[in-house]
Fold this sequence. Notes:
Blueprint: E1 16-20, H1 26-35, E2 40-45, H2 57-75, E3 79-82, H3 85-98, E4 104-105, H4 111-117, E5 122-127, H5 129-132, H6 135-143, E6 149-154, H7 158-163, H8 167-181, E7 193-196, H9 205-212, E8 217-219, H10 222-235, E9 247-252, H11 256-266, E10 272-276
Parallel strand pairs: 1-2, 1-3, 2-9, 3-4, 5-6, 5-7, 7-8, 9-10
Amino acid sequence: MSIVPIGGPTNADRPIGVFDSGVGGLSVLNALRSELPCEHFVYFADTDHAPYGERSDAYVTQRSLEVTRYLLEAHRIKALVVACNTATAAAIHRLRADHPSLPLIGVEPALKPAVAISRTGRIAVIATRVTLESRKFEALHASLAGQAHFSIVPCDGLAGAIERSDAAQIAALCERYLGAAGRFGTEPGQIDTLVLGCTHYPFIADALRRCTGDTVRFIDTGAPVAQQTRRLLAAGHRLNDEGSDGSVTLVCSGAPESLDAAGARWLDRPFRCATRASALVPTSA
Ligand code: DGL
């Protein structure tokens, strides 16, 4: 008996899912689009439940599982990029356990690259409270003991202010949190490297820069995550590397208008306007 292939996209043609609590993961999506221009992406912003950074681990894990299930069932994704440090810290182990055959890429604060480039050996790390209080982050920090001095600052409220595009609040919080980190600069004893440990923060680089001065290096994880995604897809024979241009489709659990506005402001390339997926993603905690 011969097996007749049924219609529908092949493994390589299927989209890659990308998700975050809100608009922050668009910074990772920009890097993914540059690295993988032929791929199709479905970006899910869990805006009805954002921000994640001051929720419980159980809540963030539950949301991550529900969003992943939605992306698999409604969009048949071939891989998932968790474009959220907070969701990665709280839920990546559970996602891997529940979906062993799905290529999964997470993000974490780039402490190792920061150690490699810092000349003063003083590094500030800004991220959400859930990320910084996670066991995953604790293990990463411990693995670099003695190699640099880290000022670790949880930035309560900052991702929320970015979601709302509240410029006054963003400026006030940047001043408060970077002031708490210590003195920035390139002289001995000063912090010369700032790790952006939340995918929302690349979008407020100007506000951060006003507090650190021009000489401090900022590190985010967009490009390495995109390269890792390419490697995993290639290893699993799921890479779509030729032919026509790829695409971006936006989906969210909240108001599509605000995700469209964020896409228009921050995405480097055209995208399909956002639709709301609330019926498929219940708002349980
Ligand atoms: N952008 C996310 C992160 O990288 C989440 C921020 C939040 O929802 O609090 O951690």
